User: Fold this.
Amino acid sequence: MKEIRTLVLGIGNTLLTDEGVGVHVVNHLQQQKISPTVSSDVTFMDGGTLSFTLAEPIESCDQLIVIDASEIKTHPGDVKVFENDEMDTFITTGNKKSVHEVTLVDVMSIAMLSGNLPEKRALVGIQPDNLDWGNEPTEAVQQAIPVACQHVNTLLQRWQV
Assistant:
């Protein structure tokens, strides 16, 4: 077994309105009580604006849930979950709207090339409305935070061994 059973990783720049939604979701999840049916083997991490330093925690987990603003070509605040191969395809086809110098596909590629890609992985993508300067998400994306939290909790319950 790897060092971390399940890593819930929020990505985003909280100074760019909706871009920081992944971090906001992780903060919200940490304030909630995790369902008693979910193992306590869950690590929450603010991944900020991504860097290659995230490769180590990703390689060290069995299960990975990433929450991030994503171009899912729908209405602002809509949430979509991509699991396993579907996640891999989504992040490698250029659908990820990113202002990060290092992208999620860059960090995931390190784990894949080293043979340490988490067995179970998912991206909870939230359609942004605005990526301009601002400390809070737009109203539509703010309303999506509890929805994204529910998706994360559902994944945690379903993946429990």
Notes: The chain is about 35% helix and 20% strand.
